[in-house]
Amino acid sequence: MAFPVVDADYLKEIDKARRDLRALIAYKNCAPIMLRLAWHDAGTYDKSTKTGGPNGSIRNDEELAHGANSGLKIALSFCGQVSFRRFLGFSFPVALWIVELNVSSIALLEEVKAKRPKITYADLFQLAGVVAVEVTGGPTIDFVPGRKDSKVSPKEGRLPDAKQGINAFKVSSPHLKDVFYRMGLSDKEIVALSGGHTLGRAHPERSGFDGPWTKEPLKFDNSYFVELLKGETEGLLKLPTDNALLDDPAFRPFVELYAKDEDAFFKDYAAAHKRLSELGFTPA
Ligand code: HEM
After folding, report:
1. Which tens digits make up the pLDDT trace of 102-134?
2. Pocket of ligand 1, candidates 36, 255, 276: which has the most ligand atoms within 8 Å of its Cβ, to mutate?
3. From the CA of 80, how far away is ligand 1's center (Å)?
4. Of the residues 40, 175, 197, 273, which is catalytic?
5. Are 54 and 46 in contact (CB under 8 A)?
6. Residue 201's beta-bridge partner residues?
7. How many whole angstroms separate alpha carbon 267 and alpha carbon 264?
8. Which of 56, 194, 260, 271 fits as disulfide partner to 122, beta carbons 3.0 to 4.6 Å?
9. Which residues line ligand 1 (CB under 6 A)?
10. Cβ(165)–Cβ(140) under 8 Å?
């Protein structure tokens, strides 16, 4: 089986949308929320029923209301900029928050969709994820268009829960494995993709967690793994599911490799991100 074929006009529109997204993400500083949106659309995939996955269904109100998607609707026009200022401890006017609460990450992408109506939401969300990684200094991720949109949302509970799955040994890796194996992804892909937390931060009003994982949350590099190995650092976040990568013997060697070899991380991340963005789209 091969990828679905798109025509030359569609490919041209993808090229233009890529440029639109580069400008939008740079101007609005919203790479982290775009990456999170792409991952949350794709990460619902269930390989046994071939349901969920990168099909644009996250735009449905029902799915956006899932707890794990908190903040994807209430993202903003000044997203990264505000978060970054907040991280640095700068003050900012209340007006920015008002703008922030009125504009959603999907609304931001609606601007691009309105200009490029041929492109499916499913392709647009995944393209936004790929561009978010590239413009923040990460690896180039191969993007193949042709995803179809779906109005059917999976039931809540398919995405990982940062607070869940801690077992008697205080290790949460069984939860990560349950969730990512269901998608058809491997231990190496779990660790590489967790490196997506090199971007962005947690917000108490969204997830209950607070803070960025790295000192430069708008830069895509291997510092997530460097910080993870250092242990607790004031001002930086470690979710139980991040710490699980250190405790599990199947995960830890990849954490150590990626902390010392950024090229290895970029290579594995690009391959894992491509797989995530194509779940259910190409034969697994
Ligand atoms: C943010 C959990 C995997 C990309 C977050 C937040 C949580 C979380 C709790 C904070 C949300 C907020 O308060 O705003 C998890 C868990 C994962 C996981 C439990 C399981 C391994 C991933 C993956 C990617 C990713 C695979 C991408 C490849 C992001 C990004 C943000 C984020 C970029 C920052 C968003 C922002 O700054 O607004 N994640 N995540 N995460 N996640 Fe994950």
Report:
1. 356 777 898 899 999 999 999 999 999 999 999
2. 36
3. 14
4. 40
5. no
6. 212
7. 5
8. 56
9. 32-33, 35-36, 39, 71, 83, 160, 162, 176, 193-194, 196-197, 199-203, 206-207, 209, 239, 241
10. no
**pLDDT above 60 (res 141):** yes
Assess contact for 100 and 80: CB atoms under 8 A: no
pLDDT digits over 235-273, tens only?
999 999 999 999 899 999 999 999 999 999 999 999 999
Binned at pLDDT 50, 70 and 90, residue 156 comes out as: very high
Per the structure block, which two tokens stand in for 169? 């040994």
DSSP H or E run through 238:
none
Distance between Cα 120 and ligand 1 center (Å): 24
Rounded-to-integer distance, Cα 44 and Cα 125, Å = 14
pTM listed for this prediction: 0.91
Task: Summarize pLDDT for 193-208 with one digit per residue, the tens.
Answer: 999 999 999 999 999 9
Going by CA atoms, what residue is nearest to atom 43 of ligand 1? 197
Active-site residue, 40 included: yes
Distance, CA 131 to ligand 1 centroid (Å)? 17
CA 192, 198, 203, 209 torsion-angle sign: positive
Residue positions counted in the chain: 284
Which atom of ligand 1 is the closest one to the Cα of 39?
Answer: 27
Q: Estimate the crossing angle of helix 79-88 against helix 8-28, to 10 degrees.
A: 30
